[in-house]
């Protein structure tokens, strides 16, 4: 039986109270929303925060608000199940709805939040193990060790970003609102991530994600495809979000974003540029998939054989473009 370590639990009622607690408790404090990622990590001693500041009583962080212009604001503590049950989200942003619905299981989606998904820890087969297992291999760079077992010659961690909602949020042009004792800021979701399996977020320790702001959908069409071993529930070993805006039957703007193949979500800018001015037909989609394949660098630290996962980028990008058109 894995048990939680001892910790101090704080339950503020407002965002202002939350950021004050975080800053006065210092870097040993962390936020918990649904706890479906943080608590298992604490049980495995990946993270051992002295203080856990829970968002459960902060009502302002829950719920969605549709703007008159077609924009959508999603509170960070909105549960994945609430989004899955949101008929408007399903109708207007089916790719985001499908990504949310593919996350873990109904029980976990009832607890888990969109904010927790956006800020999910990076994953690796050598890290997502209990303490005894990790000690048997002398740990690794991400947790008290001095070797990366995925790439032993490397001085960095290659644990992967596996958050299903993230590639879609980026493809849809979403922005993240953050609060801290220094005030508020709003940044593109894309800029929240760093290509480093250990220091994978750009946000400060005392910053709380309050909201995700999605622009009006307008004429954008989008799709999310997820490769995983079990269709019932599993993390993505490759996720592909595609979003297209057309001028007539030609592509005016394209966004292709991958997860599961790097420590941060990967934007396929070369493939996006290739699509401009073209019709989406099977040949063009296939050619774009071949371009998107090049920067994807899956390593041997998640499920399936990494060379095969890389090949699947071609297939998922091609199919995603044809599905989004
Ligand atoms: C069996 C299992 C299967 C899973 N399958 C998937 C899957 O298929 N796809 C997938 O994407 N995920 C999966 N997950 C991971 C997880 O359940 C989800 O990502 C979930 O959305 C996390 O949300 P949470 O609210 O529970 O996060 P928490 O565990 O509460 O928090 C996660 C991280 O985010 C931080 N955080 C949370 N909210 C905020 C905030 N507002 N401001 C600042 N920091 C914050 C926490 O400090 C923590 O570091 C799975 C988990 C399990 C246990
Ligand atoms: S990529 Fe390397 S350092 Fe990072 S978690 Fe895996 S084994 Fe550890």
Describe how the helices and strands are arranged.
Blueprint: E1 8-10, H1 15-25, E2 29-32, H2 38-43, E3 51-54, E4 64-66, E5 72-75, H3 80-84, H4 87-92, H5 94-101, H6 106-111, H7 114-118, H8 131-136, H9 165-171, E6 175-180, E7 183-188, E8 208-214, E9 221-227, E10 238-247, E11 250-259, E12 266-267, H10 269-275, H11 282-293, H12 306-324
Parallel strand pairs: 1-3, 2-3
Antiparallel strand pairs: 4-5, 5-8, 6-7, 6-8, 9-10, 10-11, 11-12
Helix pairs in contact: 10-11, 11-12
Bound molecules: flavin-adenine dinucleotide and iron/sulfur cluster.
Bound molecules: flavin-adenine dinucleotide, iron/sulfur cluster
Second rung of CATH, namely the architecture of one domain = 2-Layer Sandwich
The CATH topology of one domain is given as Uridine Diphospho-n-acetylenolpyruvylglucosamine Reductase, domain 3
Structural class, from secondary structure content? alpha+beta
Q: What does the average pLDDT come to?
A: 96
Percent of residues in helices comes to 25-40%
The helix tally amounts to 12
Along the chain, the helix and strand elements come as EHEHEEEHHHHHHHEEEEEEEHHH
């Amino acid at each position: 039986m894995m048990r939680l370590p001892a910790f101090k639990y704080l339950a503020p009622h407002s965002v202002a109270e939350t950021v004050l607690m975080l800053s006065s408790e210092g870097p040993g404090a962390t936020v918990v929303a649904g706890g479906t990622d943080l608590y298992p990590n604490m049980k495995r001693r990946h993270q051992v925060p002295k203080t856990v500041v829970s968002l459960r009583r902060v009502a302002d962080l829950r719920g969605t608000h549709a703007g008159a212009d077609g924009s959508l604001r999603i509170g960070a503590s909105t549960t994945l199940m609430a989004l899955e049950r949101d008929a408007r989200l399903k109708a207007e942003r089916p790719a985001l709805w499908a990504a949310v619905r593919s996350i873990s299981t109904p029980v976990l989606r009832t607890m888990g939040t969109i904010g927790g998904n956006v800020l999910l820890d990076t994953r690796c087969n050598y890290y997502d193990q209990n303490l005894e297992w990790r000690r048997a291999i002398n740990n690794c760079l991400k947790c008290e060790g001095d070797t990366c077992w995925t790439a032993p010659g490397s001085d960095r961690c290659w644990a992967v970003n596996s958050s299903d909602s993230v590639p879609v949020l980026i493809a849809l042009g979403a922005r993240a609102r953050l609060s801290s004792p220094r005030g508020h800021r709003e940044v593109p979701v894309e800029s929240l991530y760093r290509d480093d399996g250990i220091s994978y977020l750009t946000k400060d320790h005392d910053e709380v994600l309050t909201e995700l702001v999605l622009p009006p959908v307008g004429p954008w069409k989008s799709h999310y495809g997820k490769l995983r071993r079990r269709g019932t529930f599993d993390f993505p070993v490759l996720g592909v979000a595609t979003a297209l805006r057309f001028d007539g039957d030609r592509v005016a703007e394209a966004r292709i974003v991958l997860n599961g193949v790097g420590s941060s979500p990967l934007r396929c800018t070369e493939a996006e540029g290739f699509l401009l001015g073209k019709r989406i037909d099977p040949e063009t989609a296939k050619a774009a998939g071949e371009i998107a394949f090049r920067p994807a660098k899956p390593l041997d630290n998640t499920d399936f054989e990494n060379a095969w996962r890389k090949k699947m980028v071609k297939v998922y990008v091609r199919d995603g473009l044809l599905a989004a058109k």
